[in-house]
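#lab-general

N.A. 3:47 PM
ok so I finally got the sequence cleaned up, no stray characters, all 271 residues accounted for. can someone with queue access submit it? mine expired

B.Y. 3:52 PM
send it over

N.A. 3:53 PM
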Amino acid sequence: MVFETVEISTPAEESPTVSWAAIAAGAIAAAALTLVLLAFGAGMGFSAVSPWGNSSVSASTFEIGTGVYLIVVAMLASTIGGFIAGRLRTKWVGVHTHEVFFRDTAHGFLAWGLATVVGAAFLTAAASNIAGSASSGLVPAAGGPVDYYVDALLRSNPAASPNTTDLRAIHREIARILTTGLREGDVTALDRTYVAQVVAARAGLNQADADKRVSDVINQAKTALDDARKAAAKLSLWLTASLLIGAFCASLAATEGGYVRDNWNPGLTGQ
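B.Y. 4:20 PM
back already:
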């Protein structure tokens, strides 16, 4: 009688496809480094603005520099975060090389996505506090839209009895008028007339000069708001570019981190 020996091999326990711990570690590293670099960039940006005339950088140069710096921040933070996500992930056994490459790329992309989504709520507030601390509290609140309508109800005839004594009250009222008008597109003719009458009584101008001064100021405010909108649009484009570059860098760095993880040979270091 001939007996055959049959070897029964049990497959090894498959490692999880996604290492969420590694992804979270890479995301935290990327978010923390982004905050550090934003704080550094805010300090460098303020130091580049000089209080002396003709010695500061131009607005266009500062705008381009800000955009380029955002891209540099995204590249550095995402590269380090993606490398950590790839380096710390669980080693996959018996997985094809192409599949390993895809999984590493996905780990880097997920680390970037987690850092972007989760960090948006925290980093935006922190960066705004850092960048806006120098200008916070300098401009008083102009009041809500209801205050404007209250002013309209209680508005006196400045030509008959102008309010020229309480300067702070005049500032607040005119600020509410301009804020409401510019938010809706333009200041109404009735509000223009009223403001011009107040300016004429306060500054000692004739009505024609007061009307011209009010029109010039409103046009300047419109130009400033339009420039701010254009700057915000350009900043959004720079931010979009930095996010896309950050996603690419994180994905690529994760493949490098995973390659180092899989090909690490302790014998080469004498361990």
